[in-house]
Specification:
Strand order of the largest sheet: 1-2-3-4-5-6-7-8
Number of strands: 15
CATH superfamily of the largest domain: D-Lysine 5,6-aminomutase alpha subunit
Number of helices: 19
CATH architecture of the largest domain: Alpha-Beta Barrel
Shape: globular
Structural class: alpha/beta
Distance between the termini: 32 Å
Helix content: 40-55%
Bound molecules: cobalamin
């Protein structure tokens, strides 16, 4: 997105962010922070105190992502994990609940959107049970702060004894079927930050998984660090809450990740504590045995980085089935068993690592990050954003989007040309992947013959936040001289149907990943019927569906085909799919 000089970045009649923080603080004062089962068992009042105690005892802490179909299934998985890890002689310290995206919506909207991967907390008992089922500390890092339900969710989490509530980086996510606008959503978020500020002295922390938000679209790791500093300036300095950062799932280079961990620790203010460092999620394929190599290498460097900086931050190993679907509880335990074993051996390997190289890289990241941070603060002020109003700041950056922000404020050279993007100082792995995949796709598709391609006018978009495949589909189409209508991410079925109708589209190309492929397709077809549209639908991504009777999302490619949807495993299938109906 390029800023429109004719259109003001912010509306004239928005609420004052400072008043919203004050309102949040008032609401925060009405609730009492709970103490979880884990903390009670260890005689501490908070996750932070627990971690300090464990760190002092020399314990390597671990964290897991967990989100089954329902809360009942998730609670059962927690019990099984607790028992099985005890049997195998270790334990897991915390879990981050991967909730259904509908958790971010007011309950009256739940039935109007497709069920996605992850549980819903529906009753007060469910919320309390997150911290009471087993002595494993919950982090509610998804679909809480940043959503239209920010305030209610933050309050319930605090009352349940959840200390880390997120997710600052998810501030740009949209929620299916929600009719409100970005001002309303960000206002709720700012209020929730006020709630968290009230409980900062009780060790409540606003968590932020950097990879969930704009950082996933940045080309430069310096921008990651700069963005972390930027979030800190809003949460810690403006609002008076405490930010706790997670990072790692989109970085496959263990050396860069070790340097990033050192950098994230180096920029932390005194007394702050980060949430979790994640193993890579992107280098995995369907070759499960080969994925073990990715896991082990990544873990080794992450554990060594922990030993080097002594942060006391838990490590989150990625189950080897990551690229296939959401994991079973057994697959999660297995990944932690690997972590434990590497943890036993890591200290002996400390001296074999080239720390001066990693620390020099970390220093460059910090220096570049500080430049990004200074640039963005000065740049926003220049655009007329009131830099002591958190609502104005959040709304402004949300409206600018990650590409515009990096193009303006990156630490490296300014863009060579508008289309080029920035020249990254330390390129992100996602940027490297994109460049490599794009050139491969360009080479393949531009070599194809293009019969009657000019008649093709597809709409392209993603049903959720996953955006990388959409970028590639667009690239492939452009290589064929087809200019698509790009619907973007988080596109609801009625929006796809409206766009197809309005533009006389010849196909709708959908990427979907959140375990809702079938439910979404049926809703889309109903929207098509309502508009009497007969346009081919092509779907790719994770074509699976959460089902109450199955422990993990089930592949629904055949069901989609039966509905008449064209299913594509990869971009190569696009050409054949596009010919259909022409
Ligand atoms: C990167 C990633 C993320 C990033 C996305 C960053 C971004 N801005 O795009 C982040 C960290 C933000 C993220 C968030 C989430 N993620 Co995610 N994510 C992934 C991951 C690691 C890679 C997906 C990806 O982009 N691959 C690269 C692209 C190029 O490959 P691809 O998607 O496979 O697409 C290829 C083909 O499928 C095909 N294709 C895809 N779409 C289309 C469309 C058409 C028309 C065609 C022709 C072809 C085609 O072509 C592509 C090239 O071959 C996968 C796991 C994995 N390794 O696959 C999990 C995964 C998809 N995520 C998952 C989940 C659950 C989530 C969350 C809901 C978690 C949560 N509760 O917060 C959120 C989403 C929330 C939201 N608001 O939507 C699950 C889905 C579970 C399931 N149903 O099985 C997965 C499988 C992880 C797991 N094992 O649990 N995620």
């Amino acid at each position: 997105m390029r800023l429109d000089p004719e259109r003001p970045l912010l509306p004239a009649d928005m609420p004052d962010g400072r008043d919203l923080v004050a309102e949040g603080r008032r609401l925060g004062n009405e609730i009492t922070m709970g103490v979880s089962l884990l903390c009670r068992e260890h005689g501490v009042r908070s996750e932070r105190a627990y971690r300090q105690k464990m760190h002092a005892e020399g314990r390597l802490m671990t964290s897991m992502n967990l989100g089954m179909q329902t809360w009942a299934d998730t609670a059962e998985a927690l019990r099984c994990i607790h028992d099985e890890t005890q049997r195998r002689g270790f334990r897991i310290d915390r879990y981050n609940m991967n909730a259904d995206r509908r958790m971010g919506l007011p309950p009256e909207f739940w039935s109007q959107a497709a069920k996605e991967t992850g549980p819903m907390l529906e009753t007060p008992e469910d919320w309390r049970a997150t911290a009471e089922t087993v002595p494993i500390q919950p982090g509610l890092g998804d679909m809480m702060i940043g959503t239209p339900m920010s305030v209610a969710n933050a309050c319930r989490a605090i009352e349940a004894g959840v200390c880390n509530v997120g997710n600052m980086s998810q501030f740009n996510w949209r929620y299916p079927g929600w009719p409100g606008d970005d001002v309303e959503q960000m206002a709720e978020m700012v209020k929730a930050l006020g709630v968290m500020a009230t409980h900062a002295d009780n060790d409540a922390m606003v968590s932020s998984y950097l990879d969930d938000g704009f950082c996933a679209q940045f080309d430069d790791y310096c921008s990651y660090i700069g963005w972390a500093l930027f979030e800190r300036s809003i949460v810690d300095e403006l609002v008076g809450a405490r930010l706790s950062i997670s990072y790692g799932g989109l970085t496959r280079s263990p050396v860069v990740k070790a340097a990033m961990v050192l950098a994230l620790e180096a920029i932390k203010p005194d007394g702050a504590m980060n949430s979790a460092y994640y193993c890579d999620t992107t280098a995995y394929t369907a070759d499960i045995e080969a994925n073990h190599a990715v896991l082990v290498t990544d873990l080794l460097y992450m554990i060594l980085a922990q030993l080097r900086c002594g942060s006391g931050v838990p490590i989150n190993p990625t189950p080897v089935t990551e690229a296939v679907r959401a994991p079973t509880w057994q697959e999660i335990v297995d990944a932690h068993a690997v972590t434990r074993r590497i943890g036993e051996q890591a200290a002996g390997l400390m001296d074999s690592i080239d720390w001066p190289h990693i620390e020099a890289l970390s220093a460059r990241l910090v220096a570049g990050g500080r430049r990004f941070h200074d640039n963005i603060l000065a740049g926003l002020a220049e655009l007329g954003v009131d830099m002591i109003d958190p609502l104005q700041i959040l709304l402004a950056v949300r409206r600018m989007g990650p590409h515009e922000i990096e193009a303006r404020y990156a630490a490296g050279d300014v863009p060579r040309a508008e289309a080029d993007g920035i020249e990254p100082l330390i390129p992100t792995d996602t940027y490297r992947d994109l460049v490599e995949r794009r050139s491969r796709i360009h080479a393949t598709f531009s070599a194809r013959t293009r019969p009657k391609m000019q008649h093709i006018r597809p709409v392209v978009g993603s049903t959720d936040i996953h955006e990388y495949a959409v970028d590639l589909v667009v690239e492939a189409l452009r290589a064929l001289d087809i200019e698509p209508i790009v619907a973007g991410v988080d596109v609801d079925p009625d929006v796809f149907a409206e766009l197809a109708h309005k533009h006389g589209a010849t196909a709708v190309l959908i990427s979907t990943h959140n375990g809702m492929a079938l439910d979404y397709a049926e809703r889309l077809q109903r929207e098509f019927q309502a508009r009497e549209l007969a346009v081919p639908i092509v779907m790719g991504g994770k074509l699976n569906q959460d089902r109450p009777d199955a422990p993990v999302p089930v592949d629904v490619s055949d069901d989609l085909a039966r509905l008449g949807i064209h299913v594509c495993d990869d971009i190569d299938g696009l050409l054949a799919a596009l010919r259909i109906g022409n």
